[in-house]
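Figure 3 (text version): structure tokens given as input.
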């Protein structure tokens, strides 16, 4: 079907908004956002997901300017993202994606946002009220599925599965402008930038020396910053039936490393240097996770051994050039220990809370 949609130019929006972390924005109306999407339900190859519709017309604080991201699929490094931000606390609830529980922080193109109380046509001189949307809401929902696999398995499409298309440009560590943008956008302060540069230089030194020097000359066994090491071929398991609301302590790094293989995994679940920063910390269980979408394929994986997500325990990008994705860390129960919590919710109350749908 031929389209006469009036497109919002992202560059025009960017110049007018100039968003930085901590600023207040309003999500545009459903009609305005649909008018920015192509036939695939995307803007600049980034999908607008059905889970985002519930936020139309609401106001939020910008938590981070999404100017870059770490590639968790092909491990190619950092990639450049244009004209997007993350909004504080706005995560995907997975309701249109098989109940995926990863709870990714959603990307919002600046064309989908405006300053509070700005006119509807604030993105440009053309009135958005005359725009014709290419897609209906029903079609936005249908775009959350990919063409079926040969075995009939249902496959999903979401922002996480399409990030390499939405951010195709590699962002080299040596590109110094990224660090200036991190500070100007208020994503991080100068101290965090200096730490990121130091860690990046150290890891490159380690990578180089492990390639060219004999093992006896390696520094700290050639490990990357954070110094996480595993030695096992078969990893132990542990189940404590942790429930939402319970207070736990993340075990010391040495105890967790004793459960890892050489590729830093426990029954397939990775433990990374970023996670080691939280060792010894106390936090409450947010949820048990047994379903998540595999980014590379769009398959909905069902875990035989559920893992745990903890409140406010996310990857802060400290060792990854201050990546702003804030992905929730997944924890094996064997990496956690219960803490007596006289003032916290009882086990029964926690279980009741877990059964109650959130607003």
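Below: residues designed for each position.
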């Amino acid at each position: 079907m031929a389209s006469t949609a009036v497109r919002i130019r992202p560059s025009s929006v960017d110049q007018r908004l100039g968003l930085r972390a901590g600023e207040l924005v309003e999500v545009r109306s459903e009609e305005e956002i649909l008018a920015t999407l192509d036939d695939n339900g995307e803007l600049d190859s980034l999908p607008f997901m059905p889970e985002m519709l519930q936020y139309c017309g609401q106001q939020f604080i910008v938590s981070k300017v999404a100017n870059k991201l770490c590639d968790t699929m092909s491990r190619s490094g950092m990639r450049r993202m244009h004209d997007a931000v993350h909004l504080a606390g706005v995560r995907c609830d997975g309701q249109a994606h098989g109940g995926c529980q990863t709870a990714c922080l959603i990307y919002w193109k600046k064309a989908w946002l405006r300053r509070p109380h700005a006119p509807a046509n604030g993105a440009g001189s053309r009135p958005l009220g005359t725009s014709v949307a290419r897609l209906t809401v029903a079609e936005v929902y249908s775009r959350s599925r990919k063409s079926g696999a040969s075995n009939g398995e249902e496959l999903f499409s979401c922002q996480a599965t399409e990030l390499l298309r939405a951010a195709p440009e590699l962002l080299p560590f040596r590109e110094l402008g990224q660090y200036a943008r991190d500070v100007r956008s208020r994503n991080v302060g100068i101290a965090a930038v200096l730490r990121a540069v130091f860690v990046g230089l150290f890891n490159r030194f380690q990578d180089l020396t492990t390639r060219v020097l004999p093992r006896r000359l390696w520094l700290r066994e050639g490990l990357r910053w954070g110094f996480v090491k595993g030695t096992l071929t078969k990893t132990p398991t542990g189940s404590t039936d942790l429930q939402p609301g319970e207070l736990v302590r993340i075990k010391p790094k040495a105890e967790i490393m004793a459960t890892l293989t050489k590729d830093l995994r426990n029954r397939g679940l990775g433990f990374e240097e970023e996670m080691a920063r939280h060792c010894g910390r106390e936090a409450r269980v947010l949820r048990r996770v047994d379903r998540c979408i595999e980014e590379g394929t769009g398959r909905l994986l069902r875990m035989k051994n559920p893992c745990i997500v903890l409140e406010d325990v996310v990857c802060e990008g400290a060792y990854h050039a201050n990546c702003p994705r804030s992905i929730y860390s997944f924890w094996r129960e064997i990496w956690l220990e219960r803490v007596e919590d006289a003032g916290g919710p009882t086990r029964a109350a926690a279980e009741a809370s877990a059964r109650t749908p959130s607003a």
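The chain has nine helices and 15 strands.
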